Sequence to fold (312 residues):
Amino acid sequence: MALAPAFHGAFDRLAMWAEDRVARPPEPWRPGPDHPLEAFGPVPPAPDPPGAPGRWRFPSAPWGGPPGDEVTVDLHAARGPRRGTALLVPPWKVPGRWPLRGWIGRLAAGGLEVWLVVPPHHLGRAGPGRRGGEASIGNDLGAVRETLARTVRELRALAAAAARRGPVGAVGLSLGALAAAHAATAPERLDFAVLVAPPADLYRTWEGTAIGARYRRLAERAGAPLPAGPELRARLERLSPAGRRPTARRLLVAAGRFDAIVPPEGPAELARAWGLAPRLYPRGHLTLLLACRALRREAAALARQAVAAAGS
Fold:
């Protein structure tokens, strides 16, 4: 057991080390606007999904996307009788769809049709010459806010489309869990929301991880460094869902005790702000997201219970 923190944290440190090897230009700090996240007004409806599994695309412009960008969803059929829909929101810089097979299989086995949602700037939505996910997080906080808000608006529209066919919930992983957490406070009431290592307190990541150190260096190289702690904290707190009231009927907030990317105190504080007991697993960030069968079982059980309650 004494080796567990080092074992799990090693994967996180290796991933951050690899990202630090990528050449990046200087990136000045830009604080962005002062107002709250603009993601909770009326949203245009999404079209009805296709009737068969496959890739579903439609223009993202109604939810704030640029010309040519498309909302992209991979539809996976439920195994056995269909009981509802799970919106699966992947983590930051996911290298492909294959790391999510465990989640898709577990949710589908519980009778859920799984909609794998591709967030803006990821996979096929990255844009020509851009690394997947690179534009989602950075020192331009205005751009970060808009990407998060657009993701939330798209999730709300997809949740409403899925709800036309029965119960619906969201399973968000890491940065995907931050967007899913906001969606869990939206007017479109989810039947369940599973939030795995949501970076609800981005200040902890900026101040206490190698990711934050990377962006500090880029800002200093650009001659526009990050502000002192209190101002930076205040700016990043505007991206947290902790001050909003959840509308999802059932919630699970999970964190890894040895997480070196999203310190577990952030997800735990979000859970407590919402009146929940956080579920802490003896995992790091990546091993929690992609290699924790116990978490997947618990999440699937919660989804089954929520769907059964919605149908009763």
Observations:
- The CA atoms of residues 160 and 188 lie 6 Å apart.
- The first strand starts at residue 54 and ends at 59.
- The radius of gyration is 18 Å.
